[in-house]
Request: fold
Amino acid sequence: MAKNRFAFFRGAIRPIEEAKISVMTSGFNYGTGVFEGIRAFWNAEEQELFVFRMREHYLRLLRSARVLLMDLPYSADDLGQITLELLRREGYREDVYIRPIAYKSSEEIGVRLHNLECDLAIFAVPFQAYLPEGGIRAMVSSWRRVEDNAIPARAKITGAYVNSALAKTEAYLAGFDEAIVLNEDGQVAEGSAENLFLVREGTLITPPITANILEGITRDTVIALARDLGIPVVERPVDRTELYLAEEVFLTGTAAGLAPVVEIDRRRIGAGKPGPIFTRLRDLYERLVRGKEPRYRAWCTPVYSAPAR
Ligand code: PY5
Reply:
């Protein structure tokens, strides 16, 4: 089985062993990189691998890069073509996680963004479930989400993931599956690597993009699906205790997919099992990412066959 044999690195697809950086690399020393997480889903009936919302992921990567003053010589379409070529070379016939990363590549001392070279790499690995299935037990983290005026959360900056790692590991060491992180205003931001939704009186609620969250593509997908299904959706600030009183809570992300939260701070959420609105959205999501819902097929880029036009 083909597995992680190639990477796009320094302008070409090469054997993965050649895709190595120096310890002197600026981005490694200071966390001055930006990245994406993209998934491709295997559809066994069609014998096809579909990359989900690839263009949106690459547009976000380019926006993140702008925040770090990186001038990348690629368009979103260029990056999409490179990704398809890489996946074809690897020949995956299973679900895949794709990791593009752009970083300050100069090998010199001095923390800054300006007058440094940057580089971009892409690699892919077989996908493995990111969160336990069946229902997540979460805690509200004692760590606060990075502020827009400290490290902007809406850019997917490598260094900012120290914040996620602190929260995730605190939760893990305390016996929970995942952390829910509040922002400096004390309101709900998101999970350590997922956006958050709750349901109150049948309305789907999620913190706004000004709450120091990543502007998640799965979040955007869920909002679109909910509107299509006639489920009311509101983006507004969310208090911590609303989590405890919600009928349903779930997390969304490329790696996590749609993941139900059944317990928060040792309080049972709703009936303590995945709720009906979550289940409807999750079932639809699981089908559409594999290209099984014609209405959403435009979000799925086939790897092995040319897209139907
Ligand atoms: N919030 C944070 C902090 C994230 O890191 C992510 C994605 C999300 C929200 C959800 O965004 P999206 O729906 O666009 O994926 N996290 C990455 C992922 O691939 C990295 C996980 C290690 O899911």
